[in-house]
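Discussion board: Methods & Data

I've been asked by a reviewer to show the raw model output for two of the constructs in my manuscript, not just the figures. I'm not sure how much to include, so I'm pasting the format here to get opinions. Each protein appears as its amino acid sequence followed by a line of discrete structure tokens. Is this the kind of thing reviewers expect to see in a supplement, or should I convert it first? Here is construct A:
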Amino acid sequence: MDLGRHLRYFLVVAREGHFGDAALELGIAQPALSQSVRRLEEELGVALFDRSRRRVELTPAGRLLVDQAHRVVGAEARLRETMRRVRDGELGALRAGVPPGTSAVELRGLVAGMAERARDLDVDLGEMTGSELVRALGEGAVDTGLVTAPFDGADLVGRLVRSAPVGAVVPRDSPWARAREVALADLAGLELVVSARTAGPEWFERVLAVCRDQGWVPPRVREAGDAEFLLGLVLAGRGVALETAATAAREPRLAWRPLAGAPLVRRTEAVRPAEGAHPAAEMFAEVAALVFAGDRGAGPLSQEAGEMPWSLVYGADAGALVLPGDAAAQHPV
């Protein structure tokens, strides 16, 4: 039984709620799809769908299976992609996603820091929102990346690389610009500008929940797809933004003031799959932590760090990274 294929078909039906629509999306005949789901139900010994209505609905067993099926399908996709890269000699590349708006200095630091530690490793950086990165990691399209916590990724592990307090971003001529700190409750009646929900739904909901708990329910929430648009809305008087001081510093006509009680902290994590991660993914997290701390990664990694994360794939010689296609060449890390 091809469990992976049957689970993929099951997930599409669960999402669409209709066998015909699901078959159309998958590009297969509806009878073949129905037969696949039936085989899965027989194999598991439970009914996954209630077919008594025009649109099928998940049974309790089906609802429980959804999350597990996502994990199995994602793991299979990553496994196949990893094996393809081994076959094609591509494990000498690390594909990493970074948030939109990552500064040029930070990007240079990430690339330079990785180059110092693994000179033959090609680091391919791509711009991705948190949601895009989590999805790409699940599909095996990238190896690691940076995302704002919290995020929805049960099969991912993260390492904290930066923590920054969130404050109020206001025009410099605003009365709030002269305050030592801003209480969220005092912003009642003002509109809120925040990063778009689609970029990071968990962070978006976290911001709104903290505002509500602190006594501020904005009459309108304006979503910004990138930092420039967010800052532009504030500059145009369209609301108060809740962001880090580093983001506010990009526009000199705006001021940043800390929030009373520091109720919001933006935590950036370097994330990777919990299983089958690229051997250099942990190194990327180490470099990111150094870059965000202001250290551009000068100097080698301490030999006291123990076994290097890539040793299981590239050999147990700690302090050397041997890349596919160059087994004889060893480069100090």
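Construct B, same format:
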Amino acid sequence: MAAIKVLVGSKNPVKINAARQIFTQYYPDHDIQCEGLHAPSGVADQPLGEPDTLLGAQNRVHHLVEHHSADYYCAMEGGAHQFTYGPATFAFVVISDGEKESVGRSANLPLPQRIYDALLGGEELGHVMDRMFDTDNIKQKGGAIGLLTNHLATRESAYTQALLLAMAPFNHAELYS
């Protein structure tokens, strides 16, 4: 069985598991070797706005490409923004094979205004959720999405969908050239 090495720009088990799941689905006849490594985002611990959130994911992938060897590199960066219809959290994902890069984005999870205001005050979403819901390290578990959807969705499920979609250019390279 041929191996495919996938590096994830984070040691967060939620992100590593999401990447492993997607590559296993796309390459069922391969041994998926998925590893999480520290890769700096170069943005705030809690990115606010779409540009900074995307930049964080891109920076993580670029760091991996520059310093490591793999078949695929991927990163997920969660952010928040005050949209015209209200505050929400979301994630950007970036996948690279070292030559081409694809960007995907999760759906928005509406946030209560008081949670977003805490983010504006400098707090990270995971810490705010832990305090409000009396949880511990929720960002490495179901995340805010798990808590706010009564665990019908999870942080991993949001990353999984975004990663699945971001793989399209690798599946049909002839259409994306």
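Answer (T.O., handling editor elsewhere):
This is acceptable in a supplement if you add a one-line summary per construct. For B, something like: The first strand starts at residue 3 and ends at 8.
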